[in-house]
Fold this protein.
Amino acid sequence: MIRSAPDTSWIVQADGVVLVNSRRRTAVVVRYPEAAVWDLLTRHPVAEVTRKVACIASLEREEAERVVRSAIDQWVAQGFLREEAGGG
């Protein structure tokens, strides 16, 4: 399961999302289409996010999986997301 890290907050803006980690004192601006991935991940399981991204961006399933996984890996490394046991 994917969840935002406890010290993470975000602000949705017209051109993307600003992620803030108060513990690490870091912030990043995430532009679309990755901002849509963030928004979906905060509300849906990874499999559903992948399906939606494939549909929205007209991608093959495998490419959508790469896009979503790349975003997750980056945000986990930056401390904005955490992966927990239990799938997702």
Q: What stands out?
A: Helices lie at 34-41, 46-57, 61-77. The chain has three helices and five strands. The mean pLDDT is 93. The first strand starts at residue 2 and ends at 4.
